[in-house]
């Protein structure tokens, strides 16, 4: 073999290593740094019951990529995916699909700020872009780019984003934490 070591054979050690690698990837770390964070062989590893991933579907990743490509082409910093903003976006996309219409007001009367707060996130400013009927993330971002308000959200000084797609509905929730 060419210097590549197999994954640990113990299920807990393997899970701990894979979890550390995934978390480091989200934070821009290296595999070497992740390996330094793993527990010694045989040690008990306590992991949270659920680790929400910042991006969980291909469509969410595509929308994040399209948003960041649009921002980059205009000299803006990329947005980081955020699991709480993602949950707010996913829940609103599901709600909108059930309603059969686009609205920044939820079926319960909630605003985007209230939905983000429900997910446990402190924020100073939030915004939301909605689209329906586009067949790709790039088309959704193109549609937003020609609307002054949506374009402002795309290029704003937000640092975090949550993305979702449910059926033909696309949602991006932009967050500037305090």
UniProtKB/TrEMBL annotation:
Pfam families: CAP. Residues 1-31 form the signal peptide. SUPFAM superfamilies: PR-1-like. The keyword Signal applies. The keyword Signal applies. Keywords: Signal. Residues 64-165 form the SCP domain. This is Cysteine-rich secretory protein family protein.
